[in-house]
Structure formats: structure tokens, C-alpha cells
């Protein structure tokens, strides 16, 4: 099923993890992609992985720091100059930050995490929603987190920023639904990406895999999620099939947030 045939999608954080998984799925369904990341090497790896399976895929790469508004404007304008439209937007780039008790959490570290996870999402929405409003259609999926639904110990910056993403999502969905635009967020739990592995290494050091086995006991399915499972969800939420899903957050966490 080619739900994205003739459509253009921007994916931030496209150089790894959830962004790469979503890019593969969208490309398999016909989307023309603009992948954005601060890491050009990761972007090139994503492109090559996709082209190995889908040689006809159309993929453009933009190296940009989503925490800087002028660089967000750059990737939006590049997309318009190249393809003339933006049909869907996976506003996904994010970082975890260091782990510490709130009293020991550095101010600079807090600001760094918020700049990427919250400000970067806001800048992306600000500039992409304007384009979609002029078009009269579009869909946006922001990456929040289980940490945006409930607290996450020792991660003040991450939890605060992801709660902010939830608020921005609901607010923009209310504002832009009248223009034929849906805005929603996903709230991944423990999805086994490089970022989650980094978090486990912070907690468990060299014995991070044992820490991971304990960590997944927090969800009823007793396992990590797979990036491609998130990719399937993102593709559905960005498709026309999900147009009437708006201003909500969809968990994909194996049931980890069920108590909340």
C-alpha cells in the first residue's frame, strides 16, 4: 500500500534510531524524504540503508541543528525549494542528557536538553505549520516520551522537555485542526535505540545489558520495543487514514504507562 505516493515528508533526527526507522517505512510507501540531522554521517548511513531495500526512493539530506531557528528555517526552505510542498512532518530529533538528581542537575545541561527537545520541536512546528496552513493540509507527529506522560527519575531536563512537547502538541492540534492539519505526538517507552542504550550505560556501566533486563520489567510485555514498530505507528499517524486523530499523545511502550 503506497499511502505516501507523491507526498513529501520531513524527518528530523533522521540519522539514527526512530527517525531512520520511520524513514524506511515512509520510503517503502512512496514518500519523498528530506532527512535532517546534526550528524551527516548518520544521515548518509540512513540513506544507504534505505536505498539498499528501496533503490527507487527519493531522499535528500540536510545537516542542521534543530536547536537553532535559522537552521530549522533552512531545512524547511530547502524542502520547499526542492519539492514545492510539505505533506507530513516527523518532528523527532531529541537527546536524553545526563542523569542526575534535580539538585545536582547542571543548568547548562538542562538548557542544552530543552534547546533540542522542546525548542527544536517548537521551531519545527512554527515553520512547518505555516507552510501546511497555506497548503490547506498536512500532518505532524512530534516525538514525546513516556517521560512526557509521567516522571523519569534523574532526568529533569528530559522529562521537562518531553512534557513540554505534549503541551505544544495538544495546543497546536487545537489551533490548526480548522486548517486541515492534524498534530499528534507519540510517547515511546523503552525502544532499543542507541539513545536508550546510552541511558542504560549511564545507569549500569559495563553491565548495561543486565540493567536493561531489569528495566524492561517496568512494562507488561517484558521486552524492549523495536524501532521498526515505532516506524509503523508513525507512518499510520502521518497518513490520511489518521487525519481525524488530532491533539493527542499515543503511547508505544508495551503498557509501561498503564498506571498513569
TrEMBL record:
Alphabetical list of InterPro entries matching this protein: NAD(P)-bd_dom_sf (IPR036291), SDR_fam (IPR002347)
Keyword entries, A-Z: Oxidoreductase
Top-level lineage group: Bacteria
PANTHER family in alphabetical order: 3-OXOACYL-[ACYL-CARRIER-PROTEIN] REDUCTASE, SHORT-CHAIN DEHYDROGENASES/REDUCTASES FAMILY MEMBER
Family: Belongs to the short-chain dehydrogenases/reductases (SDR) family.
Name of the molecule in the record: NAD(P)-dependent dehydrogenase (Short-subunit alcohol dehydrogenase family)
Organism: Geomicrobium sediminis
